[in-house]
Amino acid sequence: MSITKLAPVSKSILLEPVSWLTFDQLLKDLGEKRGIRLAYCQGALEIMTPLGEHEHNNRFLERLIYAAVDILNLEIKSLGSLTLKLDRLEKGIEPDSCFYLQNEPLVRHKQNIDLNVDPPPDLVIEIDITSGSLDKLPIYGALGVPEIWRYDGRILQAYWRNEAQQTYQISEQSLALHPLKVKDLATFLRQSLQDGETATIRKFRQWLIEQLGE
Fold first, then answer.
1. Which of 54, 71, 181, 189 is the most buried (most CB within 10 A)?
2. Is residue 20 domain-resident?
3. Which residues, at least 6 apart from 189, have a Cβ–Cβ distance to it below 8 Å?
4. What is the domain range of residue 142?
């Protein structure tokens, strides 16, 4: 097994080759209460520890989403960095955050999600400031996740899944939170560092209401 060390700022390592059985056992041994996130694809295992910048952007994006669903009058089920995996595909990943919106009624009563019988989350967040070594889009595509928000520290982009090809294309608007344009949210992420999170959320709510009224 070789170990590829990534840039120190990423706090992540890539292990390969790793069997699916090893990955599955690692998930069980580590349990749910841990500070690392795992991703597995075709024998490669990435282990990542989120940094402060990573976590701030993720948590504040969550707050923006909660504010948006309230204004748009949508139901939401938030499952954080839920482990998403399918044994038959030998692919698994733990997003920074994931949400059910369109399919929320199908999983509303569930505390545990099994992708063998349940639909995947409608939306996941990936904070990719340090450009992790493992390409996560093919994993999400194989698992059937319809939309990914990817933030690199400057630009926030929405990716929509092409059902036939299981690949993603970039879109200006959110599929799950239509007609929200996700690129505008990066401004509020940066603004929260200047004005504070509560003040920025108030400004975001006012801005979104104005946008919907146009």
1. 54
2. no
3. 57, 60, 61, 64, 151, 156
4. 52-213
- 3-state SS assignment for residue 213: helix
Kindly report each contact of residues 113-118 with a partner whose C-beta sits within 8 Å and lies 24 or more positions away, as own/partner: 113/79, 113/82, 113/84, 115/84, 115/85, 115/86, 115/143, 115/144, 116/86, 116/87
* Residue 51 pLDDT class (50, 70, 90 cuts): confident
Kind and range of the H or E run holding 212: helix 197-213
Judge whether 190 and 159 are in contact, CB under 8 Å. no
Give kind and range of the element (H or E) at residue 202. helix 197-213
Query: Do the Cβ atoms of 41 and 61 come closer than 8 Å?
Result: no
- For residue 173 the two structure tokens come to 């608007």
- The answer to whether residue 159 is domain-embedded is yes
Q: Calculate mean pLDDT across residues 178-207.
A: 94
Cα(170)–Cα(161) distance, integer angstroms: 9
Higher pLDDT, 12 or 98: 98
Residues 94 and 79: their CA atoms lie apart, in Å, by 11
Is 25 part of a structural domain of the chain?
no
Question: Quick one: what percent of the chain has pLDDT higher than 90?
Answer: 75
* Domain containing residue 74: CATH number: 3.90.1570
Give the model confidence (pLDDT) of 53-65 as tens digits.
889 999 999 999 9
**Cα dihedral 78, 124, 176, 130 in deg (nearest 10):** 130
76: region left, alpha or beta (phi > 0 left; psi from -120 to 50 alpha) = beta
